[in-house]
């Protein structure tokens, strides 16, 4: 599956952004989807993941819990990341990723397909 992320930009502290990731192909609903991020000079880290069927089968990093919401629309082959109450430490390149695993995961190694990334910058 090929992934295309978009929606990044510059926002002030406390602001909101919604990232989107569109997948190619007709098997989107068979993939667990995740969002990861990589800040300058740091390793890529897990942000959120959602199961193939979506709904309340989601998992979040502690640093974003209560502020970010992952969702998906299988009819549109799209996964979203709604980011509220943004902080300067949320500044990073955000990547969407797909995994065929049926077990919800936070591990990069489980996700085999990756998008190109979209830059989110939060100014203080």
Helix percent reads under 10%
Summarize the helix and strand pattern as letters: EEEEEEEEEEE
pLDDT < 50 runs, ≥5 residues: none
Helices, by number, come to: 0
> What is the residue-mean pLDDT, rounded to a whole number?
96
Largest sheet: 7 strands, mixed
The secondary-structure class comes to mainly beta
Assembly state (oligomeric): single chain
| Beta-strand content estimate | over 45%
Number of strands: 11
Shape: globular
Span of the ends, CA to CA: 37 Å
Radius of gyration: 13 Å
What do these coordinates show?
The chain is mainly beta and about 120 residues long. It is built from no helices and eleven strands. The strands form two sheets. Strands 2, 4, 5, 6, 9, 10 and 11 form a seven-stranded mixed sheet that branches. A four-stranded antiparallel sheet has the order 1-3-8-7, with no helix packed on it. Strand 7 and strand 8 form a beta hairpin. The radius of gyration is 13 Å and the shape is globular. The model has no long low-confidence stretch (mean pLDDT about 95).
């Amino acid at each position: 599956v090929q992934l295309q992320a978009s929606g990044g930009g510059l926002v002030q502290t406390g602001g909101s952004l919604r990232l989107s990731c569109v997948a190619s192909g007709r098997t989107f609903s068979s993939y667990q989807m995740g969002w990861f991020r990589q800040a300058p000079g740091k390793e890529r880290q897990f942000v959120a993941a959602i199961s193939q069927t979506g709904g309340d089968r989601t998992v979040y990093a502690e640093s974003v819990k209560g502020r970010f919401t992952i969702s998906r629309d299988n009819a549109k082959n799209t996964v979203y990341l709604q980011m509220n109450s943004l902080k300067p430490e949320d500044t990073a390149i955000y990547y969407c990723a797909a995994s065929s695993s049926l077990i919800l995961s936070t591990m990069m190694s489980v996700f085999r397909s990756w998008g190109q990334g979209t830059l989110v910058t939060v100014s203080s």
